[in-house]
């Protein structure tokens, strides 16, 4: 079944606890951490993640768009994140970092910017629990989905299948009712949705609708039929 992770980047920051409760049917709550260095935007950090983890039963999926990920990523596990994603472009020792995140008890995930190819990281895939393909340039919510990322999603799914891995494939950026089926057909199974959820009149219903669209597209996708 497809997983839907609403992004609190599109939520009301003054009401984060309530916004988290509004999507309690979601699989994970996606938390975008930006440092105004790796990306040109500044959001939130460890204290907010720690507070959120106490305010919701939905597990936290922290996406670190920050420099020096090797130093900071483990502290997000300690703050309560169930999954921590670091960027390949910001990690000096990605294998060591993934192992440290796992050793602390969270799922380890690596993200790739749109221009970063997947192929150089093929041998690292067994060290990860999830790989995130950015379908917009990281840094801001509300951007238009980049269709040119669909072949990259397909290639990544092929590598996951080639190695027989139980690796989740996440997409983040411009995911909505208009784009989620294409992502699922290409091979994604975890979907970050910001404005498509929090911009809806009923965020919980939006989560259910997106999951249903993705499940139907996945059922008909060649990559899923091979399983």
UniProtKB/TrEMBL annotation:
Catalytically driven reaction(s):
D-ribulose 5-phosphate = D-xylulose 5-phosphate
Where, by residue number, is the active site?
32 (proton acceptor), 172 (proton donor)
Q: Where does substrate bind?
A: 7, 63, 139-142, 172-174, 194-195
On cofactor binding, the record's note says: Binds 1 divalent metal cation per subunit.
Record-listed a divalent metal cation binding positions: 30, 32, 63, 172
The prosthetic group or cofactor this protein requires is: a divalent metal cation; Mn(2+); Zn(2+); Fe(2+)
What keywords is this UniProt entry annotated with?
A: Carbohydrate metabolism, Isomerase, Metal-binding
> Pathway listed for it?
Carbohydrate degradation
Known EC number: 5.1.3.1
Q: What is its biological role?
A: Catalyzes the reversible epimerization of D-ribulose 5-phosphate to D-xylulose 5-phosphate.
Protein name from the UniProt record: Ribulose-phosphate 3-epimerase
Which organism does this record belong to?
A: Streptomyces globisporus
């Amino acid at each position: 079944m497809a997983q839907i992770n609403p992004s609190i980047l599109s939520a009301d920051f003054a009401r984060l606890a309530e916004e988290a409760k509004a999507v309690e049917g979601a699989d994970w709550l996606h938390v975008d951490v930006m440092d105004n260095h790796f990306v040109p935007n500044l959001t939130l950090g460890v204290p907010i993640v720690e507070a959120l983890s106490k305010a919701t039963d939905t597990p936290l999926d922290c996406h670190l768009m920050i420099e020096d990920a090797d130093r900071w990523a483990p502290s997000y596990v300690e703050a309560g994140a169930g999954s921590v994603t670091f960027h390949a472009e910001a990690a000096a020792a990605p294998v060591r970092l993934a192992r440290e995140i796992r050793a602390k008890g969270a799922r380890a995930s690596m993200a790739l910017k749109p221009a970063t190819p997947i192929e150089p990281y093929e041998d690292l895939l067994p060290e990860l629990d999830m790989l995130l393909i950015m379908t917009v340039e990281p840094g801001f919510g509300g951007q238009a989905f980049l269709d040119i990322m669909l072949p990259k999603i397909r290639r990544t799914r092929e590598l996951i299948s080639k190695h027989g891995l139980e690796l989740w494939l996440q997409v983040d950026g411009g995911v909505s009712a208009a784009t989620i089926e294409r992502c699922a057909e290409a091979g994604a199974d975890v979907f970050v949705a910001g404005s498509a959820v929090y911009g809806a009149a009923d965020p919980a219903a939006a989560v259910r609708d997106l999951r249903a669209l993705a499940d139907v597209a996945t059922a008909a996708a060649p990559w899923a039929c091979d399983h």
